[in-house]
Amino acid sequence: MQHSAPSFREFSDRFRSLETTLSRELFREHRDQMRVKKEETAAENLRRIIDATLRLANRKGFQSMSLRDLSAETGLSAGGLYAYIRSKDDLVRLIQRHGVALTLRSLEDAIAAADGPRDKLRAAIRAHLFLTETMQPWFYFSYMEAKNLPRRETREAIRSEVAVEELFTGIIRAGQARGVFRNGDPQLLAGMIKALLQDWYLKRWKHRQRNVSVECYADAVQNMVEHAVLVPPYDEAPAAAHNATCEEG
Amino acid sequence: MQHSAPSFREFSDRFRSLETTLSRELFREHRDQMRVKKEETAAENLRRIIDATLRLANRKGFQSMSLRDLSAETGLSAGGLYAYIRSKDDLVRLIQRHGVALTLRSLEDAIAAADGPRDKLRAAIRAHLFLTETMQPWFYFSYMEAKNLPRRETREAIRSEVAVEELFTGIIRAGQARGVFRNGDPQLLAGMIKALLQDWYLKRWKHRQRNVSVECYADAVQNMVEHAVLVPPYDEAPAAAHNATCEEG
DNA sequence: GTCTATAGCATGATAGAC
DNA sequence: GTCTATCATGCTATAGAC
């Protein structure tokens, strides 16, 4: 049952097609708010605007990023930007919606494919890491700017965060019920797992610098979590077939 | 040797006196930059300004916080603020310096008091959690605004972060050398521990809402880390004498 | 030592030429 | 469909009355 632990590569391919679909949906939903009607140029410029915004916001903060900065980064004129977005708040809403949709759909797919508590837990861990690896700029933005967003978006961000954590709580509860996992507060455990997973996108510069790959980090997290959660006779991780080159201290 | 695991209460008392000392030092260092010379009013107002800034910045972000907001929150007039700080950047520098000094001194003290890898690791975990519990607004501010700070302060923040992590790396290395800790990349492990510790102040609202105390969380982290790090015959945690009421799922 | 008033400037957003 | 020119707003910071 290695169905539950696909490699990053496999994940990445499935993700790309999902993104194309959702990007098109995004454009269609916002078409009536945009002055630009020709689909191909509009879709491309919208993507450029979003990417540039994430880049700038993650470098110096969304509030400090002026529309003049954005116009420089995208190559569009200051006035031209308003052909695509109504306001700065509108822009942030757009970005947020797109990211949440992508995240949820992608996670749900990946997790449903596994069965049994241990495999489900692994699948969830790996999917989350692969997802945040692929969409790192969005996750970082979403985390760092959440509290400064318009009220509605802040609430949405929290809801999404809680939903993900509950997913883990559920898996742990199921495992405890079957006697596969050791007892202990499932919510607390889920929170700790989430903390480990979030570190991957919050401190990416660090992991990059140390040459730790996602696969490596995934194995490390899985290992720590299983040590903490499985009932004592722990058979040391059979994982990490993909790269034997996880840096050794 | 329970010297290494003081309760939050004990920590808190020692901390308070340290803070008084450093607050006074802070005022003296910046005295010449302030228009206000009378020590007692000046020191008090400076403290009010710092507290208000942390409150506001953590609510809506430092960039979005105007000096009008700050003047409303402190009760001082917009103009009056400039009797204490030269500029907004100056304010942030002040806050940052104060926090770093407090953190380092406090952590060093607490850790030096323990000996042996296992006790040192425990002491480090507890001290870090207690410290962030006490100074939560500062830590949150420092984490969230780090990248928007003036260049020099950003670098300082990263240095401080790395220094703390290396402290953990060192303890783990020592433990592995003595055969008390299992093998595995010490840097990666230290990073994961740090992630668990940071979650305490980054998601405080969540832990509050769930009624998890620092002591509880400290025990949970210690437990997970020891499961992952100690050589197999793991004697289940002798900790948590302080409160038997850690919420059970 | 604190306040009111205001200078000087950067920003978000728009109108109209091309 | 994109650009240049411009406006109103709200900001930081200062000067001077009290």
Task: Count every beta strand of chain A, where a strand is a DSSP E run of 2 or more residues.
Answer: 0
* CATH architectural label of chain A: Orthogonal Bundle
Q: Roughly what is the average pLDDT of chain A, rounded to an integer? A: 88
Which blocks of ≥5 consecutive residues of chain A have pLDDT under 50?
A: none
CATH top level of chain A is: Mainly Alpha
Q: Tell me the series of helices and strands of chain A, N- to C-terminal.
A: HHHHHHHHHHH
Q: State the share of residues found in helices of chain A, binned by percent.
A: over 70%
Q: Remind me, CATH topology of chain A? A: Tetracycline Repressor, domain 2
Strand content of chain A: under 5%
Principal-axis shape of chain A equals elongated
Global Rg of chain A: 20 Å
Largest sheet of chain A: none
In the residues of chain A, how many domains can be counted? 1
Measured distance between first and last alpha carbons of chain A = 32 Å
CATH superfamily of chain A: Tetracycline Repressor, domain 2
Structural class of chain A: mainly alpha
